[in-house]
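Bench log. Compound arrived from synthesis this morning; before running ITC I wanted a structural hypothesis for how adenosine-5'-diphosphate sits in the protein. Inputs:
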Amino acid sequence: MFRKILIANRGEIACRIIRTARRMAIATVAVYSDADRNARHAMDADQALAIGPAPARESYLAIPKLIEAAQASGADAVHPGYGFLSENAEFAEACAAAGIVFIGPPASAIRAMGSKAAAKALMEKAGVKLVPGYHGADQSEARLAAAAAEIGYPVLIKASAGGGGKGMRIVAGAEEFSGALAGAKREAQSAFGDDHVLVEKYLERPRHIEIQVFADQHGHCVHLFERDCSIQRRHQKIIEEAPAPGLDAATRAEMGEAAIRAARAVGYVGAGTVEFISADGAFHFMEMNTRLQVEHPVTEMITGLDLVEWQLRIAAGENLPLAQEALHIDGHAMEVRIYAEDPARNFLPAAGRIRHLAEPAPSRHVRIDSGVREGDRIGVHYDPMLAKLIVWDRDREAALAQLRAALASYELVGVHNNLALLRAIAAHPDFAAEIPDTGFIARHPELLAEAPIAPPREILAAAALHVLAARDTALQAQSAASSDPASPWFARNGWRLRDQAPEDVHLASAHGDHAISAFWREEGAYRLVFAGGDTVEARGLWQGARLRLTLDGQETRCSVVETEDALVVLAAAGEFRLHVIAPDAAQAEESAGDGRIVAPIPGHIRSVLVTAGENVARGQALVVMEAMKMEITLTAPFAGRITSIAATIGAMAEEGQALVVIIAEA
Ligand code: ADP
């Protein structure tokens, strides 16, 4: 076995490989770019070497630098992870030339499967079924269009060198073909430096089912069953499960054999995945990925095996640890991928700093493969996947219950992420009841609806208690810092005063303004009076960001996190963003007994709902602003007449700027 391995990767997969290596008493070397100097993987490894600037081309994709790092550290093997150089034949060859073992298949197998078109030709010969299509060398538009007509619309144009759903176009009819072809070629050229495409039948409501295979250097090859990866966005997986729901044993065996034939046809060694697309009960070869997959943990959970350990053993020349007959499926596993992205903005990758991270507790049922920690800055240089949550139980229904529970306690604040979407999918009755297919998310646009409800009372109470506790802390710090007995702070009467006068907490959310008056009761306890008169006795117990909140004797739990621009409350009811309006801003507004309505925070004027000279009632909406992606409605503090309006639709308003002036009715 190896003594020391270098991991030519980053993020969760680097951390995951380090875990297995450590269990096997193999030393680990991490590499990191300038952007990753403090990254978790560099910390987790026994040793870490800098390999260059943030852009991947100059670090994680720079073959000479990686070989140099492997040699300098004395590693005897390199694990490429997934992505980056994991399917790069030149890298495999460069490792071999430097006398370092590449933990992966031979360069020839990577090359054979590297082009979707060439792989299809090879699979056709090996007797593996393909989606009806054209994968020939003639790339003229006339030939490709003729192929499309022959296959029958709709068709899918795919980049032969493709990956990650790039360079793909669905074409509904002949009139769209020319434009779609140009688009696919353009995208393929810029993403892969190769504009070769293939055309195939576009299947309606297909399933993505893939088979995990393993082959050793001694001619043995097995499959470790299937994974269903049909829940996708933009042709990219976000939820995977094993076994595939509703797949019968005969089809499973048939797919397994086809996958083994595919692996054998290219002289495969190591871990590989043969992807099939399945529709109407038939399955067709799509492509083979010559590496470990992101979703390999679901296979580990149902087989009880460690696939990275298998990779290491095979690369070190050992036999396959188990024969086909010794492999069994136990229970059901699901994985969700947690991405730094904004589902509401077409899954645009997001950047930011992780202000708060609370993961569900790991157990026999719950596993977390993460590459990040609280405080980490998420940049734009690399893949936006942050972590994976994997659950296991005896069957799909029980596994889904585990998934819902684990997602409910997964808290991530500071960077846009897809946790709300994952929760919505896990909670959706159709996801529980139907056989998954790749159109699921597109068919259910309601999954992407943002903040559908106004913050309920417990959310506002939690935020208010946070604000009050923060003020308390600030007051105590001032008091502690003051050694002057004559100082008003020294007497600490700052909070004894509260016996008499209420403190105001002014919050704003996407649903409007929320004014709360707090009457101090005792340490951590207040009577809260909401605008409108609703009153509640609130008591809070804090542990970091976590709050045990008791409202009129009823206990709930949530977390409250302060970010640069908002207060985020995470609770069973969902995630709510609130803005705290500073007391002076609130006062300014109040002291506008003169009737000056000011912008509470900087933002754009969305609409002006009144005109000069108009009479308004108390509480009537006057102006709608948009700030921090929220809508804030400014209302009349008292009944009166509008004397002037300084707000113009579309204009930017500064904090404290007067927008409307009202005079009270006599
Ligand atoms: P990439 O290598 O870019 O990930 P794949 O060939 O693996 O591309 O396909 C990615 C996804 O695109 C599949 O999982 C599936 O959802 C969809 N897809 C691929 N081929 C077809 C097809 N013929 N019909 C319908 N959907 C397809």
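What the model suggests: The radius of gyration is 30 Å. The pocket of adenosine-5'-diphosphate is lined by residues 131, 156, 158, 162-166, 200-203, 206, 208, 232, 235, 275, 277, 286-287, 438 (CB under 6 Å).
ITC booked for Thursday regardless.
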